[in-house]
Amino acid sequence: MSLSDNLEKIYHKIENAKNRSGLNRSVQLIAVTKTHPFSSIEECYALGIKTIGENRIQEALQKFNSFDSMPGLTKRFIGHLQSNKINKCLELFDAIDSVDSLKLAMKIGNKNKSIPVLLEVNTSGEPQKYGFNPDDVDSMIAATSTQNIIVKGLMTVGPLTRNEKKIRESFSVLRELKEKINTHFSTNKLTELSMGMSGDYEIGIEEGSTMVRIGSALFGRRKF
Question: What domain count does the chain have?
Fold first, then answer.
């Protein structure tokens, strides 16, 4: 199937999942262009996709060309960010969706650039994953007051399983955590929930996701 056909199929599934959720909200599709050439970004843009996600600084540095012909395109960093790559990340990307600790938030905040971010939470408890502990609400609240970063919401990666119940539980934890954190704010409440990738984005949307990160379902199996 073509990229256009895949995109149409994904949009259809997104709408159906939104209807099942009973929640009236928009869901942003982030095209995960990791391992795909710059021409894939251009093709996505031509089809109306205005947000891309990359998870490797070095790859983005080598791949990104001029975006002058793609006004309004947002480039989101979605991978684990090492401290020594922060400066480059701020140069290349418009948002960071994977701030996984208060320490990292403060290091980003010490740079002289304001940037919107999501806080990554390890809701599955899998040891190989990065992210705030869901119980460490105090650190997440502290991150929201860090200078130069604008915390828009939360992000998680679902558990590595086909067990729908476990995936759904992981996503519902993030939704409930957002609601809990928002009780501490009278203004500037968190609005975004980024949860759901190619294999589980429908469940993510059913559980309240406002952003889904789609790679293989859009482009086909990746080349590693």
Answer: 1
